[in-house]
Amino acid sequence: MPTRRCPDCGVTMEEATTRTSDGFELHLVTDEPKDGLLGTLGAKEKLKPTTYVCPECGLVRQYVDT
Predict the structure, then answer these.
(1) 54-65, pLDDT tens digit by residue?
(2) Cα–Cα distance measured from residue 41 to residue 59, given in angstroms and rounded to the nearest whole number
(3) CA 16 to each of CA 36, 41, 62: distance values in angstroms, whole numbers, following the listed order
(4) What is the DSSP string of 6-59?
């Protein structure tokens, strides 16, 4: 994972786990169709974001590896 720096404080952000209240991981659904058969059936691409938290100011940011 790349090192992320807080845009406000300039310190290194810490990786965190983000889950729903039911314990499921978050996913971002794009407008891009999924590859293969599922894409032809209308399924959309899902991406898993990585969450980072600034230990100084508490800023939370999510990034998707592309």
Answers:
(1) 999 999 999 988
(2) 39
(3) 32, 34, 10
(4) -TTT-SBPEEE--B-TTSPBP-EEEEEEPSSHHHHTTPEEEE--EEEE-TTT--
Residue 30 lies in a domain: yes
Residue pair 13/52 in contact by the 8 Å Cβ criterion: yes
What's the CA gap between 51 and 58, in Å, rounded? 12
pTM: 0.71
Tell me the per-residue pLDDT of 18-35, one tens digit each, with 9 for 90 and over.
888 888 888 777 777 667
Does residue 3 lie in a domain region? no
For the four alpha carbons of 14, 19, 20 and 23, in that order, the dihedral sign comes to negative
Segments forming the whole domain that contains residue 28:
14-63
